[in-house]
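User: Riboflavin biosynthesis protein RibD. Structure?
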Amino acid sequence: MTNLAQEISFMQRALTLSHQALPACRPNPPVGCVLVKDGLIVSEGFTQAPGCHHAEAMALANYDQPLDDITAYVTLEPCSFVGRTPSCAHTLVEKGIKRVVVATLDPDPRNSGKGIDVLKQAGIAVTLGLCEDEVAAFISPYLLPNNN
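Assistant: Predicted structure:
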């Protein structure tokens, strides 16, 4: 298990990655994700252009080892619905991720809380709110209803 200082550093790295998503990800929000195993970042991802990988899917695609004991740190609640891409929450479940740390909930009414519910119903341990203020300060302008 990692300590709080390590967890904060992982989420801050995910936040740094989320900046790389802009402007290509628009109109989707800029999200970052890191996968951590044994206290080390083993893969990273950020939201790609519409129709391409979201942050979680990119991080998973960039990691070709067993996903045992992986924790995903993601700046925004994983999506629970299928749009131009598969549901990130369901993908995390299917891949066997055991723990997900989320900075902030997605206010989009299609998702708000539903992604967390998908994870929890699958038995995934979820931590919500790590670095929430810092992440929200960056991502809020890109979220519905501000998503123009």
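The CA atoms of residues 60 and 126 lie 18 Å apart. Residues 4-20 form the longest helix (17 residues).
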